[in-house]
Amino acid sequence: MGLFWRVLIILPLFFAYVNGEHFTYPSRHPGKAELAGFKGPDSLATDGGGFFSGPLVVDNDVTATSGNQGGTTEVTVAKPGDDTLEASKGDDGIRYANLIEAATTFKGSWELFLENGGVSAMHLILLPKINQALVFDATVWKISKIKLPGPPCRHVEGTNEEDCFAHSVLMDIETGKLRPLRLNYDTWCSSGGLDINGRLVSTGGFNNGSDTVRILDLCDTCDWKEYPGALANGRWYATQVTLGDGKFMVFGGRDFPTYEFVPPEGKKNTHQDVVDFNFLVETHDPVENNLYPFVYLSTDGNIFIFANNRSVILNPKTHKIIHEFPVLPNGARNYPASGSACLLPIILKPNEDRSVIPAEILICGGAPHDAFEKADLQRPKVFLPGSCDCARLDFTKRDSKWNIFNMPSARLLGDMAVLPTGDVLIVNGAKTGSAGWDDAREPNLNPVLYKFQTDGTSPKFTVLNPSNIPRMYHSSFAVLPDAKVLIAGSNTNPGYLDDALFPTEVRVEKFSPHYLDPNLAMFRQEIIAEKSNNKLKYGQKFTVQIRGSGVIDQQKLQVTIYSPPFVTHGICMNQRLIQLGILEFNKDVIPNTNNIVLQAPMNGNIAQPGYYMLFVNYNGVPCLRSIWIQILP
């Protein structure tokens, strides 16, 4: 069939898809109060999926088109990591490796996955192997949107009350089926991470849960195991980080400027196990602004810690701060100013032998230092504008300085999801105010795509299509095996309220990013799981088999592994994406089937032991579905 006739057939279907009702959900809160400064998604200037307005920046070998044209343009540039090709320098002063990918004008699509997720997703993590999202909020409310399946109910401490609501659920990410779980010790504003075997180890919370360690195993009938008193200090609004040997540390928490290692299951820390951390004293504003610090394991085994507007490198063995970076200006970034942060992709070369592997943090948004005071303590409330800037820093270099640049709009209370391609989806949040009960306004409904690598001339940010559900304080996300992003949560209320300015949100959405443009479906490869290695040792060579139509160009392949984060309050604990070095590419081992020979990361400081989703991206388009791999110590 000629190209003209293909276009003639496809174009009407494409218009129907773009202009359809796929962004409109029925209101769950009839008669709710008008949102101050918010007129709904129709008031926002957005481009429909598959169309672009303005110039498309491409390389010199491709002719740019303009106007309302759908479809894709394949951009041929240099391969990342090719030392024979000079990287470009962006206007932010950052040097970017060039990247091969199929460009698209598709700006994403939203689908309502669940009308009632049972529990508002204050905390969210995708569990490996069983492919279920674990969602929980807090027992303090004594209510949710789903009941426990039967007795026993939870005895409310210090009262004669019984609480028969579930405050934690497992959510099947394909069917939406919910399984309520029992919690006795309050998880409000807690922390967590996956252990080597994929179990969630959760720490801290509120009141009777503040010194609790909880573990959830991976099985169809597993429930929480709770160990109150396991921590020596209360950990409310604390951050948990996984070390290169699989152990956990937990930093900070309200009224406790300290840290401690999380004890083995069933054991208890004493006060002798607590380390005073004066950095958290020094970064404490009158309204805190240093809770939920951003904490990441560096590729050299040290720990990067950012709190308020300062950042240091801590040696976890000597307990000494070995370096402090320049102050990041323009406000505070941590709770309750509540910017967001992520570790940018760690890129490995084939036969990796570098002594230091670069690692960069990206921090976006936040609020002025007095934003919480104005919004929460002052009457009438004043909602200060959030920050519009982002900043990058390579914390493996002691002479690093912040590279600061603007994103398209102000954002606080947002989330940063590292996508399988390494690009960052900035989503959720508000434009003014602070974290806290009813302390923010102007929901930021448009996700923004941040291209962590560009050719130095093309835009770093792309504004994507909006949701019509405000996701404010206590929102969350999870990157899914099919490369969609689960979006949930939002509760600005001390309890479950349906008639508030921003009601307690239990609806769950899925967002399809730019690379799921239907016109790019031809590039999606299928991983043949039974022919691919899924248990690895450090440095091991291993094979992943893929199947797809057409001839595969090795230069357009990218293989990444992704560690699912524990997401809460704009912080994504232990989120980590690593691009693996490709050693060999064996074409057509059978028709339309190819083997990719890869090298596992060299040690646990690069990739902590445990479970990762492995994605194969071709032309910048993720595979149909990732596979789970386990890196063993």
UniProtKB/TrEMBL annotation:
Transmembrane segments: none annotated. This is Galactose oxidase-like Early set domain-containing protein. It comes from the Eukaryota. Residues 1-20 form the signal peptide. It comes from Gossypium raimondii (Peruvian cotton). Keywords: Signal. It holds the Pfam family Glyoxal_oxid_N. InterPro entries: Gal_Oxase/kelch_b-propeller, Gal_Oxidase_central_sf, Glyoxal_oxidase_N, GO-like_E_set, Ig-like_fold, Ig_E-set. Residues 122-515 form the Glyoxal oxidase N-terminal domain. The keyword Isomerase does not apply. Residues 533-631 form the Galactose oxidase-like Early set domain. The keyword Signal applies.
